[in-house]
Amino acid sequence: MGNNENTKIKVTQIFRYAYPHIGGVEAVINQINNSMPNEEFEKEVLCCSNIDKSSVENDVKYTRAKYLFEFASNNISPQLIWNLSKVKTDILHMHMPFIFGMIAFFIARPKYRKLYVTYHSDIVGFDKYMKYFWWLYRIFLRKADKIHVLSPNIIHNSQMLEEFADKCVVVPQGISLNYTVNNNKVNEIREKFKGKKILFSLGRHVKYKGFIYGLKAMKNVENAIWLLAGSGPLTESFKQYIEENNLQEKVVLVGRLPDEELDNYYEACDIYLFPSVTRVEAFGIVQIEAMRHSKPVINTWLKNGVNYVSVDKETGLTVEPKNVKQLTNAINELINNDELRLQYGRNARKRVEELFEFGKVKEKYKELYRYEK
Predict the structure, then answer these.
(1) N or C: which end of the chain has fewer CB within 10 A?
(2) Domain contains 210
(3) In degrees to the nearest 10, what's the CA dihedral of 274, 278, 283, 288?
């Protein structure tokens, strides 16, 4: 159905946001596009933006629709419905949860040969609004030819996916095994906090990241420093909490880090702390980034891709969400047991090599998309 119908497979992906917007789903969209060779695939993304105009970036056509407002993590956009109605493609690939996008699909009736759905996570936090659409959601998933998930965990722990397990295909996010560090910068970080084990976290300062529980845990941790990177609406409250609880010698808010600095911090740290508290956190690519550096991860039991990436008592430790006591104990255990911490780190690197190396992930995506036209 694409312009080069006889030679190329046209793939049209749809989500509420896409490049240059940054987020977990957007990263998956980018990775899918990067996995498909230009000589075999014609690539298109339909999304929303009130800032960026439609464009072609890296051989991907981005058609961006204006939206009226956001509601329950959905962009309400009549223009997206119109754009979708004009679609003629080989593979229509919808990213969920995006309930308005699903409604737009039924209204617009785009033309396609195959329907793929990436099911990133269950609907979290907006159940009271979205429960009225669950019947339609199930019809939509029944229409899908394949349902792509980032980990097997979500298949077994999602009520919505239970009846569609036979359609599910697991392709995780991937990462290059290679990275570049500035040894002078790494040594500078380590020297600055000499005599202390270094914990590192990176992410937006929002509730579901659970950073407040890390702050509470650090009150009962000795001989360690937590470097918390990123920013967001909770940054000021974190600063206040640190000051009120005299945590200045235990926690440092390092702010937003440029991409070229991230590997230096991953390399310099001893432990990566990932205390997210809800299943809005569906995977956690930052875990893989830390594990690539042979760092153990302390994460939370969310029964999804987070726990597929880093496995309890194999590549780190897993605690119950919001459980400050368990989080404190896990931090202290890895701080005080060098042999265990280093073993988990070696296991972490091995797991990345086996499951998340980008070359292997890329081949899985190409296999997912190839079919007889």
Answers:
(1) C
(2) yes
(3) 0
Domain match, 206 and 111 both: no
**Are 290 and 344 contained in the same domain?**
yes
Kindly state whether residues 98 and 219 are assigned to the same domain: no
d(CA 148, CA 195): 46
**Do the domain assignments include residue 258?**
yes
Whether the predicted pLDDT of 10 surpasses 60: yes
Residue 73 lies in a domain: yes
Task: Tell me which residue range forms the domain holding 219.
Answer: 183-355
Task: Show the tokens assigned to 284.
Answer: 């956690």
Alpha-helical segments (H) within 195-310? 211-218, 235-244, 259-268, 285-292, 305-309
Q: Which helix (H) or strand (E) holds 92?
A: strand 88-96
Write the single-letter amino acid at 347: N
Instruction: Provide the number of structural domains found in the chain.
Output: 2
Q: Is 161 inside any structural domain?
A: yes
Same domain, 188 and 170: no
* Sequence-ordered alpha helix ranges (H) in the chain: 24-35, 78-85, 99-108, 127-130, 134-143, 152-157, 183-192, 211-218, 235-244, 259-268, 285-292, 305-309, 324-336, 338-351, 358-369
pTM listed for this prediction = 0.88
Over residues 104-152, the pLDDT tens digits come to 999 999 999 999 999 998 877 666 667 777 889 999 999 999 999 999 9
CB-CB contact of 246 with 223 (8 Å): no
Residues 210 and 335 in one domain: yes
Q: Is the dihedral angle over the CA atoms 282, 287, 292, 294 positive or is it negative? A: negative
Residue 355 — left, alpha, or beta (φ > 0 → left; ψ -120 to 50 → alpha)?
A: alpha
pLDDT at residue 370, rounded to an integer: 74
pLDDT at position 23 over 90: no
Same domain (yes/no): 252, 333: yes
Q: What is the pLDDT of residues 71-104, one digit of tens each?
A: 888 999 999 999 999 999 999 999 999 999 999 9
